[in-house]
Structure formats: structure tokens, C-alpha cells
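Example 3.2
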Amino acid sequence: MNSRYEIIVYWSDEDGSFVAEVPELPGCMADGRTFQEALVHAEEAIQEWTDTANDINRPIPEPKGRLHYA
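Structure, written as C-alpha cells:
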């Protein structure tokens, strides 16, 4: 999957891993031992988030591609 949702990846000392957040999808985040692993896991989380939203008839936001509310 190659989504168009913005993914923010940063290092977390507390978790000892890279964290990837998807701001446009509430609660959608992942982590990984490397930057690349966190990004791959975020793409998987996006797919799972959208699949679940479809299953429960929850609206899925259109990706904006760049954070507009920071």
C-alpha cells in the first residue's frame, strides 16, 4: 500500500523506538526499531484503520497530503 495520508515519524526515548503517527486518522499510529520499519508498520495501520472503518460504516477522511492544522 502506498497511501496519501501524511505520516509523521519521530524517535521516542520513552518507547525506545521510532513512532509513526497518522494525524488525519484518529488513533492511527505504529512503531518500529528503524525509521523504515515504523513507516511500513504505519502503512499497515492505515490499511487496518480504513478496513475497520469500512466494516463499521465509519466515514474515512480524504487524505490532505500535508498537515494543515499544526
